[in-house]
Give the backbone structure.
Amino acid sequence: MPESRTFDLLIGTRNYGKVCEIQDALEGLPLKLHSLTEYPGVSEAIESGATYEENATIKACYYAHQTGLLTLADDSGLEVAALNGAPGIDSARFGGVQKSDSERTALLLSRMSKLTTGTRNARFVCVTVIAEPDGHVIHTATGTCVGTISTTPAGVGGFGFDPVFIPEGYDKTFAEIPLPVKNRISHRARALAATRDFLAQIAGRHSLVRNLTPDMTGF
């Protein structure tokens, strides 16, 4: 029976919630997953892009170069139709980088306080990018999840705007529904489904050898 081999993949974030979602989505693949918490000396990438894809690419390439590992990074945001797509790519910095998730959520609800139920449509968008240490991007995927914004937060799960986002077809927020359900229907889950397919396809190819750490070159 052939020896099972794995390859290293860095998850380019220190966000514990994101790490858990990505680990769950990639479970079962021949991967040794790492996160940025293992690399305290690596600084944060500067997200200067104008789109989710640009920011995800910046992060994937930067962290891949800094660690020497094949890196998966994502960028995501909440787009509220009545706010002309805001907060969008600034979702993680909405109202200022020092604000907590709950403070950003409160700010969003205050700006939507006069909107009626029929005008609270929104969607989450996520773009994932995989980059090699030399800066070569080998995969990009996009996922979306449409829904509405509740008038008050509900639930203790998830992170970010999850307590106020009700996905289409459900009557509970992302923070209320079970994590396995969220991990099937969310914007990140949909982008990661395509990412998983890609990683599964390349896992056994010899072309992946150049992406491996030195002790893995026998792949």
